[in-house]
Design brief:
Mean pLDDT: 96
Oligomer: single chain
Low-confidence stretches: none
Strand order of the largest sheet: 12-19-16-17-14-13-20
Largest sheet: 7 strands, mixed, barrel
Number of strands: 20
Structural class: alpha+beta
Order of helices and strands: EEHEEEEEEEEEEHEEEEEEEHEH
Radius of gyration: 20 Å
């Protein structure tokens, strides 16, 4: 059973939990930007956690189905319409042969997700169905969707019952002000006192320069200590001899606008990393729309590990 794409939306792609083990070769982990919302979409329709979904950015697709199925739409709040009639998010939506699904204007956030019972059944590439457009890898022919595409859907196993409703306390919140927890390092010691103060004690605003590779913020600036650069580094104090980048690392080229690397980011380069967003807050970043006011909060490694465990327990409860 394919989904027939009538209109693709702004940037709709196939994503799953991502591909592990290839970052050291320059291939990013990829996967859904908001893993939590994508996971719950799969749970609602009775899929497995590894099944692929559609990730939609700002403007959703318009499509029809050729046989009965269940879908679920999670993530950023958006009007969901079946044959022109509004239907709720975060709940199973039964479709019949020929039904048309479309979307209104997104009301907050940036990404929403569509799960279909049986999962998006594109070929697995390096252990994942996720789309990496820059490398033309995975997904549907390695690219975002286009009008006229027929997206294959798998056969539901029937081993897991759909989830009728998601508890209010388990729904993510989409706000215009967020606190993002970070671990300082590796190179925060190269910041001036003013730079360190600005990073942690002032507000930052997400700019429209934000995609699957990274998110750029505007604010007071983060000055670097002027120093003699080591051999092999660039001339700017924000340059280092090339190093590997952790997912979520924060760079400040020229001491001006911080950039947070996200799921499709490059794996290394010559910019110093002042901090790294903890894994439990990467979904929070993905829910931020341009204009979101952001405060970076330094935490310890122990606190980061507790946050990761709390997130894992929350998902495990939903999937139980």
């Amino acid at each position: 059973m394919p989904l027939e794409i009538l209109e693709p939306g702004l940037s709709t792609s196939v994503q799953d939990r991502g591909r592990s083990g290839y970052y050291r070769y320059g291939i990013p982990q990829g996967g859904s930007m908001d893993q939590y919302s994508a996971s719950i979409a799969n749970r609602i329709v009775g899929n497995e956690p590894d099944d692929a979904v559609l990730e939609c950015t700002y403007l959703g697709p318009r499509f029809t189905v050729s046989q009965s199925c269940l879908i679920a739409v999670t993530g950023a709040p958006v009007e969901v319409k079946v044959n022109g009639t509004t239907t709720p998010q975060w709940a199973p939506i039964p479709l019949a042969d020929g039904d048309e699904v479309s979307f209104g204007v997104i009301q907050a956030g940036a990404k929403f997700f569509i799960a279909v019972s049986g999962g998006i059944d594109v070929p697995v590439a390096l252990g994942s169905r996720s789309t990496y457009p820059i490398g033309s890898l995975g997904g549907f022919h390695g690219r975002t969707l286009a009008a006229g595409d027929s997206i294959p859907i798998g056969t539901p196993t029937g081993e897991r019952s759909p989830l009728d409703a998601v508890a209010e306390g388990d729904l993510p919140v989409f706000t215009k002000e967020v606190e993002v927890r970070i671990l300082l390092g590796l190179h925060d010691h190269l910041l001036t006192e003013e730079g360190r103060h600005n990073l942690l004690e002032t507000d930052w605003t997400l700019t429209p320069v934000a995609d699957r590779m990274g998110l750029r913020y505007s604010g007071a600036g983060i000055p670097w200590i002027k120093r003699e650069q080591p051999f092999g580094a660039g001339h700017d104090p924000s340059n280092i001899v090339d190093a590997g980048y952790p997912v979520g690392s924060i760079q400040v080229p020229g001491g001006k606008q911080p950039i947070i690397l996200h799921r499709d980011a490059v794996s290394g380069g010559g910019y110093a990393m002042v901090a790294t967003v903890i894994s439990a807050d990467m979904d929070l970043l993905a829910r931020s729309a341009p204009g979101t006011t952001t405060r970076f909060v330094a935490v310890t490694m122990d606190e980061a590990l507790v946050a990761r465990q709390d997130r894992a327990r929350r998902l495990a409860r939903i999937w139980s």
